[in-house]
Amino acid sequence: MNQLLPWQQQNWRHLHHYILQKRIPQALLITGKKGLGKQHLAQQFAFALLCVTPQPDGLSCGHCDRCKLLNAETHPDFICLNPEEPGKAITVGQIRSLVAKLTLKPQFEAYRVVVINPAEQMNNAAANAFLKCLEEPTERTIIILITDKPAKLPATIVSRCQKLAVDSPDKETIFSWSKLNNLKLSHDTVSIVSGLAQGAPLLMLEYAHDETLILRNKCFNAWIAIAKQQNYPVIIAEEWYKLPEAPLIFWITSWIIDLIRCFYQVKTENLYNPDLNESLQELSQQLELKGIYKLYDLLLNSRQRLGTQINKQLMFEEILIQWSELNRSR
Fold first, then answer.
1. Residue 164 contacts by C-beta under 8 Å, 6 or more apart in sequence?
2. Residue 306 burial by CB count (10 A; 0-12/13-18/19+): exposed, middle or buried?
3. What is the dotted CATH code of the domain comprising 211-328?
4. Given pLDDT bands bounded at 50, 70 and 90, which one contains residue 304?
5. What is the pLDDT of residue 329?
6. What is the spatial order of strands in the sheet that 112-116 belongs to?
7. Predicted confidence (pLDDT) per residue in 175-203, tens digit
8. Which CATH number fits domain 6-167: 3.50.50.60, 3.30.460.80, 3.40.50.300, 3.40.50.1100?
9. What is the reported pLDDT for 8?
10. Which whole-number Å values give the CA distances from 242 to 164, 238, 311, 323, in the listed order?
11. Which own/partner pairs from 137-141 qualify as long-range (CB within 8 Å, at least 24 positions apart)?
C-alpha cells in the first residue's frame, strides 16, 4: 500500500507539506474524475498520519504495528464510510453513528482519520448531520471527503474543507505506467480505451480487462439499428435500463460529440471512438446539425439526473425516440 500512483507525485508533495508543517487540515476534500485513484491517495495520506515510523518521503513504512493494523483493516482510528449498497445514499443513520464514534478520543496517540467516499452520496439529512462534524471538530481527527462530483456537495460543506484536485495525467505518463504496459495492448485498443476512459488510467486498466468494449459495441450496433429504422426505441430502452446507466450515457454522449466532430472533419485520432469513425462519418453527412445539438442538450440533462429517482427506462426511451426522429427526418 505504501506506494503512489505515478501521476500522484505532485499531489503527494502537497499532502506531505501539510505533515512537515504540522498543519494537518481538519477536513480535506479530494476531487477529480473517476479512475484517477483518489481513494488510493487518501489512504496514503491516512496511513502516513497513522504510521509510527514513516519514510523520508512521508509515506508509511508498511511494517510497524500500526501499519500492520491498517493492512489488516483493523486499525481503530481509521474509519471508512461508504454507502451500505453500491449506488445507494449514505444515510443519516450512518452519519449519526460516525458522530457518536467521534465523541470518543482516538485510541492511539496519533491522529484519527475518517474517509467518506463518495461524499456526494450523502442524502440531505446525512449532509446536515455531517455538517456538525465540521463545525465542531473533535480532537486529532481528520475527515477526508472524496468525490468526482463536487458540485453535488452542499456549499456549506465544501467551504469548510481544504481542497486537493487530482488531475488527469498526460499521455506519456499513462502509457509508461507499468500496469498498463504489461497488458501489451495494441495501439488501436489503447486509443479506444483511452477515449472511453477520458484519460483516466485506472478506468483504462479496467476497460482493458473486462468486457466493456464488447458491451459498448453491442450498444452502438443497437444505436445504429434505430438510426436505420431497423429496431424500435422502446425495445432497446427496455434492454438498456438493465445496464449501468452512467457509462452508457457517456457512450451515447461520446457518439454525439464525435458526430459533431465528424461534421467539422476533425481528425480520426481526436475522436472519442476512433474505431467507429466510418459509421459516424456516414451519419454526420446525413443528419441536421441543429437536431444533433438538441439531442446533445437532452443527454447533458440526463447526465445531471443520474443518481436521482429518475425512471431509467423512460429516460432511455426519450433519448432513443429523439434519436429515431432525428434520423427519420433526414
1. 11, 14, 15, 28, 29, 30, 31
2. middle
3. 1.20.272.10
4. confident
5. 65
6. 78-81, 112-116, 141-147, 27-31, 162-165
7. 788 787 787 777 778 778 888 888 899 99
8. 3.40.50.300
9. 95
10. 35, 7, 11, 20
11. 137/26, 137/27, 138/102, 138/103, 139/105, 139/106, 140/105, 140/106, 140/110, 140/111, 140/112, 141/26, 141/102, 141/106, 141/111, 141/112, 141/113, 141/114
Q: How many other C-beta atoms are found inside a 10 Å radius of the C-beta of residue 201?
A: 23
| Grid cell for residue 74 | 483493523
Per-residue model confidence as pLDDT tens digits over 77-94:
999 999 998 778 999 999
Question: pLDDT tens-digit profile of 224-261?
Answer: 999 999 999 999 999 998 998 888 999 999 999 999 99
Task: Quickly count helices (H) and strands (E) in the chain.
Answer: 16, 5
Note the Cα 90 to chain centre separation in Å: 17
Paired with 265 in beta bridges are none
Within 8 A by CB and 6+ apart from 211, the residues are none
The C-alpha atoms of residue 235 and residue 70 are separated, in whole angstroms, by: 49
Average pLDDT, the chain: 91
Helix (H, G, I), strand (E, B) or coil at 92: helix
pLDDT at 38 over 60: yes
Quote the percentage of the chain above a pLDDT of 70: 98
Domain spans of the chain, in order of start? 6-167, 211-328
User: The C-alpha cell of 257 is what?
Assistant: 460529440
Cell match 453491442: residue?
218
